[in-house]
Amino acid sequence: MNRVAVALLSAILLLGCSAASDEANTLSPEAAEGQATARSNGCAACHGADGQGGVGPAFVGLYLSDRELVDGSIVVADRDYLYESITQPAAKLVAGYRGRMPSNNLDDAQVESIMAWIEELAAP
Ligand code: HEC
Questions:
Q1: Are 41 and 35 spatial neighbours (Cβ–Cβ below 8 Å)?
Q2: Res. 48: pLDDT tops 60
Q3: In this prediction, what percent of the chain has a pLDDT beyond 70?
Q4: Which class for 23: exposed (0-12), middle (13-18), buried (19 or more C-beta within 10 A)?
Q5: Closest atom of ligand 1 relative to the 111 alpha carbon
Q6: Which one, out of 20, 26, 44, 62, has a CA that is 20 to 30 A from the CA of 73?
Q7: How many CB atoms lie within 10 A of CB 62?
């Protein structure tokens, strides 16, 4: 890699980091903990370190939005739905995603904190 590329990459990395920490500063303590929990439990790999989505749906704008499921029905992404989606990933499948979400061993407190984070990402 040449020097320009290295400089560019470092600039992008630095920008990415400062953007991420800026955002964390605006989160409530519980939501920030939820974000950290999602990052340390593999959720971020598919849903993005900042909830921006990837292989899985984005968390940004998810809370209380309409979700279309594979059976064609529409559900509202309220707290019950989020809780079920996290604790029983196969219970309701969102349409349009080929990957399958793996199960996890989060306890209720961890699920609550991740839901707090998702709620705060509702209005970007
Ligand atoms: C291997 C990728 C992958 C990982 C890891 C993963 N998910 Fe998912 N997740 C998905 C996919 C794909 C969907 C959409 C299909 C479905 O409904 O299962 C999804 C759906 C969801 C939904 C419903 C989203 C919506 O748009 O309605 C929530 C909430 C969620 N995941 C939370 C989590 C949490 C919390 C973790 C970490 C414990 C996690 N996921 C880990 C891939 C992943």
A1: no
A2: yes
A3: 78
A4: middle
A5: 35
A6: 44
A7: 21
- Name the amino acid, one letter, at 104: N
For residue 25, the CA-to-ligand 1 centroid distance in Å is 25
Q: Determine the distance separating the centroid of ligand 1 and the alpha carbon of 11, expressed in angstroms.
A: 31
C-beta separation of 68 from 54 below 8 A: no
How far the first Cα of the chain sits from its last, in Å, is 36
Question: Any residues with Cβ below 6 Å from ligand 1, and which?
Answer: 38, 41-43, 45-47, 55-57, 62, 67, 77, 82, 85-86, 89, 93-94, 97, 99, 101-102, 104, 106, 114
Average pLDDT in the chain? 88
C-alpha 50: how far from chain center: 6
Which bin fits 40, alpha (ψ -120 to 50), beta or left (φ > 0)?
A: alpha
pLDDT, residue 11, reads 56
